Amino acid sequence: MLREFSIKTTSRNEFVNITSLVEKAASESKVKNGLCVVYCPHTTAGIVVNENAGPNVKSDLLAALEKIVPEINFQHSEGNSDAHLKSTLVGCEKVFVINNGELVLGTWQGIYFSEFDGPRNREVIVKVSSD
Question: CATH no. for residue 112?
Fold first, then answer.
C-alpha cells in the first residue's frame, strides 16, 4: 500500500510530528507483519525519528543543526544550501517494523517531517509491505 500525505510547513526550519499519519497508514494497510518506509521526496527536507515527549527536544535539535550548518555564502546561489546539507545529514527516509499490525516505535519515539527551506507545501510518501 502506498499513501501520500501533504504537509504544510510554517517556518524556514521546523519539525512536524507525522507519527499519527504514519501509524494510520500502517493500520489501514491491514499488514500484520512487514515494513513501513517513510520517504521525503524533497532535497531540502527530511525524516527524523526522535523523542516526542520533551517539548524542548525539537528546538534543541534545530538549534544544533543551525550551528552545525549555518547559513553562509555557499556557491549554490539559491540561498538554501544550508537546507540541502541539513537534509543530507538527517536523511530522506526511515524504515519501521510492523509487528502484529502495529508500527514498532520506542516508548519516547516520534516521527518528524523535517523542514529546512520553508515555509512550503510538501509531500511525504508512506509505503507499507508485508513480509
Answer: 2.60.120.460
